[in-house]
Design a protein that fits this description.
Blueprint (H helix, E strand, L loop, with lengths): L4 E3 L7 H11 L5 H5 L7 E3 L1 H22 L10 E5 L4 H17 L4 E6 L4 H4 L7 E4 L13 H11 L6 E4 L4 H4 L10 E4 L10 E3 L6 H10 L18 H14 L5 E5 L11 H13 L3 E4 L6 H8 L7 E3 L6 H8 L4 E5 L2 H8 L4 E5 L4 H4 L5 E4 L24 H4 L3 H20 L1
Parallel strand pairs: 3-4, 3-6, 4-5, 6-7, 7-8, 9-10, 9-12, 10-11, 12-13, 13-14
Antiparallel strand pairs: 1-2
Helix pairs in contact: 4-8, 4-13, 9-12, 10-16, 12-13
Length: 426
């Protein structure tokens, strides 16, 4: 069956740029997902066969070498490399897979390569022997990539010889490094059945990302069925003491809700004016509102705070670390935020949450104990080019998020407030 991917040229983008970006990202989706991309586009490109040909030609020399020099999967590996080069949410949901890998190979030395931005969460993860914090030059975006950075990254990764490598992301910009590394075997996710760099390809259905990463790990040991989905909580007593002190300084003793009104990718951000009504509702109920975020998000949060009536709102953006954020969430009533990294931190802290999904897939990234509000946009699934300010449709905010009203979020808040009142009465 031929699958067509159509692109809207109204945004003024060059057709070749759109195609190259699509080629880079569409590996994330299954054929069923790709069929849904047919909706409301104006230029038809048969990406299905082009994607396969480009991927095959890129990997052709590697596959020829593998034909003449291929070893069996090592049954007793001494050194393993795991590649998880994506964002905070990705590394959080990878921890069950990493823990399972340690259970399978208790005596092996496990190394993890990830982005430096994830250090504040994953550093100290006891199931990994060594962390390699490297920036993937292919994530830099247009105009920032250089061959020098690419080969410098390869040089650092080639310092060790690995018995096998597990690539968890299923993304071509991450798997393209595999032919250059010193290993005899590679295993990884292959959502669209197109990667030719892998010796063992793992096909995973549309399910939660935690389970998909576990599928990649379990491919090396199918007998391991007792896999815990528990996310790793790195918060320490020191982090909790620091949060207690900060809350006392701010005069916050109880009844507070954590808000993450921003997102690393602009189309994932719910409109500021809609936050106003929700947050005024919460403060009118006598609760405190605590904003969290990165240092660079501080000023954006201040814009929202200026719209609020009461003074019982606080901006913690840039003031606390990732681990301290988890400690803060352990004391909160509930969390409200966009589909972004802090949503996963709330899951780590086992905090009730209201999560607003737009371009993301709640089946892959949502949690069953969270209240998810999702209005599937007509252009779903979205490739989500994180290095651009707008989506492929040229929108600054996803249509799915624009369809979510303040009243819908307030309704979910009321449900949490009623539950809290009932818990107090018991």
């Amino acid at each position: 069956m031929v699958i067509f991917c159509r692109f809207d040229l109204d945004s003024g983008m060059d057709k070749r740029v759109l195609f190259l970006e699509a080629w880079r990202e569409l590996y994330l989706y299954s054929k069923k997902d790709l069929e849904r991309l047919i909706l409301k586009r104006s230029v038809a490109l048969d990406v299905s066969w082009q994607r396969k040909i480009i991927s095959f030609l890129t990997a052709f020399p590697y596959r020829i070498a593998r034909f003449f020099y291929k070893k069996k999967f090592p049954q007793q590996p001494k050194k393993i490399l795991v590649i998880q080069w994506d964002y905070l949410g990705d590394i959080i949901v990878s921890t069950p897979a990493l823990r399972t890998l340690r259970d399978i190979y208790s005596s092996a030395e496990i190394h993890l390569v990830t982005s430096p931005e994830n250090k504040s969460y994953i550093d100290g993860f006891s199931f990994v022997n060594r962390m390699l914090y490297l920036k993937n030059p292919l994530h830099a975006g247009r105009g920032k990539f250089t061959l020098k950075d690419f080969f410098n990254c390869i040089s650092k990764l080639r310092k060790e010889k690995y018995d096998f490598i597990i690539e968890l992301t299923g993304r071509l910009p991450n798997q393209i490094f595999l032919p250059f590394l010193r290993t005899d075997y590679s295993v990884g996710l292959d959502p669209a059945n197109n990667f030719y760099f892998l010796d063992r390809r793992v096909h995973s259905n549309r399910k939660h990302q935690t389970e998909r990463y576990l599928d990649a790990v379990n491919a090396v040991n199918k007998n391991n069925s007792n896999c815990s989905l528990e996310l790793w909580n790195p918060a320490t007593e020191e982090d909790r003491l620091r949060i207690n002190k900060l809350l006392q300084e701010k005069g916050i003793y109880n009844n507070f809700v954590i808000i993450h009104s921003t997102a690393s990718w602009k189309p994932r951000q719910w409109p500021i004016e809609r936050w106003k009504k929700v947050l005024n509702f919460l403060t009118d109920k006598g609760g405190n509102v605590v904003f969290i975020g990165a240092t660079e998000e501080y000023n954006q949060i201040e814009q929202i705070r200026r719209l609020l009536k009461g003074k019982n709102n606080f901006n913690f953006a840039g003031l606390i670390s990732v681990r301290e954020t988890i400690a803060l969430m352990e004391k909160a009533d509930f969390f409200i935020g966009n589909d972004s990294g802090p949503m996963h931190l709330a899951a780590v802290a086992k905090l009730k949450a209201i999560v607003l999904f737009g371009p993301g897939d709640p089946i892959k990234w949502g949690y069953s104990f969270h209240k998810i509000i999702y209005k599937e946009p007509p252009c779903s699934p979205c490739p989500q080019f994180a290095f651009r300010d707008k989506c492929v449709k040229g929108l600054s905010i996803c249509k799915g998020l624009l369809a979510i009203t303040s009243d819908e979020v307030i309704e979910k808040c009321e449900e949490f407030l009623i539950d809290k009142k009932e818990e107090k009465n018991e």
